[in-house]
């Protein structure tokens, strides 16, 4: 019995170390005081979109607390001091950035540092002419958003397919392409993966088990939409609309950032889905195109 309990404990430790790692983004440095406002804005936008799967992001208040406790100078932190901050906060990695200008264009350089070894894992950057570019919605037009998401994808911890199990349900990978609702039903029905062919499109209750960091829509949350309550009256914006303060990939146990179909109908010609960018539930026409994860 003791040996069995020891093995269970060891498995829990290994699982925690793999899927509960922590990271942080430091305030970006700037070469001249005139760039402070721009640097603060760029840092804020970068942090909004740098949400790598498998990591819990430590917020600015925690970093500031350690800086104050250690007596460091916030505006002149050395790399050694930054690593020390990471060690105190038990971070796996920490991101630093610099803002410079070359007679007009802004240049953003970013480094991802491994806190344990002190080694620089990744260096990357973007150059853009106008600060207004970082407020553009589309990834290709927003250089800071593009940089943040590119780095997040590089460092993300993705659970292997054999670990795609939540509450005893096994989940497939998310589809590469979006599809209409009827095609999604047929896709899951005909899916044959690892010799298993009993896949199906998940109902809204099952899909809600994949939500995290949004208490109102997680399983057991106060959002009334479920397989036993699928009419429009079951949906309220303040309980089912999602957690708008969340960040991309932070509301999904798998790090998804997209909408996923459920098999649960709303009215004729429409069905429920979950938007994992904020954990919200809503309805789309069955003719709309949405991503899919199958379940069994």
Protein architecture, described:
With 296 residues, this protein is of the alpha/beta class. Helix content is 29%, strand content 20%. The strands form 3 sheets. Strands 1, 2, 3, 4, 5 and 6 form a 6-stranded mixed sheet that branches. Strands 9-10-11 form a 3-stranded antiparallel sheet. A hairpin with a 4-residue loop joins strand 10 (270-275) and strand 11.
What is the compact description of this entry?
By secondary structure, the protein is of the alpha/beta class. The protein contains eight helices and eleven strands.
Distance N to C terminus: 32 Å
CATH topology of the largest domain: Rossmann fold
Structural class, by secondary structure, is alpha/beta
CATH class of the largest domain: Alpha Beta
Task: Report the portion of residues in β strands.
Answer: 15-25%
Major β-sheet annotation: 6 strands, mixed
The helix-strand sequence is HEEHEHHEEEHEEHHHEEE
Low-confidence stretches: 1-19
Mean pLDDT: 84
Total of DSSP H or I helical runs spanning 4+ residues: 8
Rounded Rg: 22 Å
